[in-house]
Prior knowledge:
The protein is an alpha+beta fold. Helices cover about 20% and strands about 25% of the residues.
Amino acid sequence: MKVWIDQDLCTGDGLCEEIAPAVFTLLDDGLAYVKEDDKVLNEPGGAEGMAAVPSDLEDAVVEAAEECPGECIFVEKA
Ligand code: SF4
């Protein structure tokens, strides 16, 4: 499973980071980005900053995508 965030739609509420802090993080710009192996994929973000999700975190990532008020977390099932 892979995941990315469309930062143009992110409201910066931080819900994703609360649900899955190993995968999502808020940066100083007030927007959420995905992480892969603790590396933040913010240059660039968006669809080009797509992170592989460890299998034990897949449920949390799906929950975050469902709860995200901006509907801007995109999960791609591989
Ligand atoms: S839950 Fe969605 S809108 Fe909220 S910070 Fe995360 S990506 Fe942004």
